[in-house]
Amino acid sequence: MLYITGMEPAANQHIAIVGCGPGAAEYLTAAAQSAAADAMVLAGAPRLLQLFPTFTGERLAVDAAIENTLTAIAQRVAAGARVTVLVTGDPGLCSLAQPILRRFGREACRIIPGVSSVQMACARLGLDWTAARIISAHAAMPAVDPRALADISPVLVLGGNRKSWPWILAAADHLASTHRLTLCRNLTLPDEELRELTPADLRALPPGAGSSVLVWVKRPEESNPIPMTTVNLVDR
Ligand SMILES: C[S@@+](CC[C@H](N)C(=O)[O-])C[C@H]1O[C@@H](n2cnc3c(N)ncnc32)[C@H](O)[C@@H]1O
């Protein structure tokens, strides 16, 4: 059983996994900054390492090769270093946190939440996300039938991968009659963009559409082209 008390890391917590928010330094929490300041090694994507310009310890740039990253972290921990691993957004959403926890164990790790890109998209669009469905199309094609999403709102999809673009186009087609789609790209960054799109608009974009969250929000029933009561009658 794991017991955690107080704000300080336990003696055996050699690794901190820190959510750095969607990108802008102003969305870094004080807890994230203090975990970075406390580290001997700061590991993360180059873009995240740049958020800590005054850090003087070792900077370990990581890329998509997860096994190499885990090995590099293991070497530092074995040498007695405190390692802080930086992830985008929140560690609980599609991040390096789970591979690290599997490799090093829950007891060895402290997790510091951050503002997720999904939270940021909901804040920008003024959405309540209590009933949200979050789907990752970031690393691979989602194993979700878009037709199963017709009654859900909001639907938030992590985009950015060319390979899963066909799934996103199919979802846009299936949800076009019931939902509005907004592409939220590069949130909090200087080139942030929020665009409401039709399926045709989406097809005109370069596949992948960059670092983005696609948000489908169900329209009020009266503005749907096909009233739901009619659909029910046809189904019967
Ligand atoms: C590996 S996942 C990490 C998600 C992250 N843990 C989070 O909580 O946002 C990367 C995906 O997050 C989304 N993302 C991250 N930063 C973003 C930003 N600033 N604007 C829009 N989407 C972003 C994109 O869908 C990107 O492909």
What characteristics describe this protein?
binds S-adenosylmethionine; alpha/beta; 28% helix; five-stranded mixed sheet; Methyltransferase, Cobalt-precorrin-4 Transmethylase, Domain 2; Cobalt-precorrin-4 Transmethylase, domain 1; elongated; single chain; 236 residues
Summed up:
Helices cover 28% and strands 21% of the residues.
Structural write-up:
The chain has 236 residues and is an alpha/beta fold. It folds into 2 domains: 15-115, Cobalt-precorrin-4 Transmethylase, domain 1 (3-Layer(aba) Sandwich); 118-223, 2-Layer Sandwich (Methyltransferase, Cobalt-precorrin-4 Transmethylase, Domain 2), CATH 3.30.950.10. Helices cover 28% and strands 21% of the residues. It has helices spanning 30-37, 46-49, 66-78, 97-104, 117-125, 165-175, 199-203, 228-235, and strands spanning 15-19, 41-44, 58-61, 83-87, 109-112, 133-136, 155-158, 179-185, 193-197, 212-218. The chain has a 5-stranded parallel β-sheet, sandwiched between helices. A 5-stranded mixed β-sheet has the order 6-7-10-8-9, with helices on both faces. Strand 8 and strand 9 (193-197) form a beta hairpin. The longest helix is centred in the N-terminal third of the chain and has 13 residues, at 66-78. The radius of gyration is 20 Å and the shape is elongated. 36% of the residues are buried. Bound molecules: S-adenosylmethionine. S-adenosylmethionine (SAM) binds at residues 22-23, 87-90, 93-95, 116-118, 138, 158-160, 184-189, 211-213. The site of S-adenosylmethionine has 25 residues, from helix 5, strand 8 and strand 10.
